[in-house]
Write a structure and sequence with these properties.
single chain; globular; 62 residues; 29% helix; 24% strand; Ribosomal Protein L30, Chain: A; alpha+beta
């Protein structure tokens, strides 16, 4: 059985004054509140989403 790699992401800066596209990316990653940590599969799609909003999120060590 293959184990899928996971990535832990923390939402640490508010998206209030950001473009609508950035807000949609934050929502698409599953964040609902500030300082929340989510665990997602480490896929190119998720990495791309994180790459578009590096000023709002942190990638945490596993």
């Amino acid at each position: 059985m293959t184990e899928t790699r996971k990535i832990r992401i923390q939402y640490y800066r508010s998206a209030i004054a950001t473009p609508v596209k950035h807000k949609l990316v934050v929502k698409g990653l599953g964040f609902t509140r500030l300082n929340q940590i989510v665990e997602r599969e480490d896929t190119p799609a998720i990495r791309g989403m994180v790459k578009t909003i590096p000023h709002l999120v942190r990638v945490l060590e596993n």
